[in-house]
Amino acid sequence: MIKIAWNPLYAHPLPEGHRFPMLKYELIPGQLLHEGTISQENLFSPEVVEEDIILATHSNDYWQSVRDLKLSPKDQRRIGFPLNAELVERERRITQGTIDGARFALDNGVAFNVAGGTHHSGSNWGEGFCILNDQAIAANCLLNNKLSSSILIIDLDVHQGNGTAEIFKNESRVFTFSMHGDKNFPFRKEVSDLDVPLNDGIGDEEYLYLLEQNLQIAFRKSQPDFVFYLAGVDVLSTDKLGKLSLTKAGCKERDRIVFQHCKTKNLPLQVSMGGGYSTDIKDIVDAHCNTYRLAFDLFE
């Protein structure tokens, strides 16, 4: 059975101006349940990740400042919103959801986190609405528990996975692949194992061609036994922040390419949902739900 991490705290209310993107964390599971793609049995509510697991990825000074709500105003501005205890708990539950999902994927082939994809968080910083790097923490958890020896992280959010690249820059067991807008945030890029910077306005045909070609390179170079996938839908033409021009059909085909590679190679796959900032919330929810619909068609 495909398992999906979700908790009501995922829809944590943020300060005015940041609340709209949070609506999707309620609407995605609601839509999937309504249409019958999933049942309540597919959903699980993660606990709070333990500190020692966080500290295998993030520095002690950074984590203590987050935990104790003592990040400087400058560092909080870099994240994009002020810290509070409930927000930190939310991040810890999201992270545990990705860890649990990775373990479920080992048994079931694929697992999801309705939130996550917090790839701008580096070893000692938070940035771009990201406080803890859920997939990086989960990858280290697999390695440290000898559940994996070679991991591929496929990051297809429109923004470069700069935090993930920094965390694993000296870790040969984790291969980081980021395909992202070249002239988009973050404006100071890190170096992934494979970066594919894209010009503004790129459409379905060119995007999917580049993805197929570079996925083959990433799999060949990494020879993974586990895959993490960040499936942001901010690549859509309707996205306010994305600058690319993919259709929903193109976005769904992107997911199909990734899923098919993993299924053909019999590789366990954990999926975190990443960004999506289209003006109409329906576009965001439908594109994200397509990722789930496709996975249930292919893996169930």
UniProtKB/TrEMBL annotation:
Histone deacetylase domain span: 24-289
CDD domains named in the record: HDAC_classIV (cd09993)
Keyword Hydrolase: yes
Keywords noted in UniProt: Hydrolase
Similarity-based family: Belongs to the histone deacetylase family.
Protein name as catalogued: Histone deacetylase
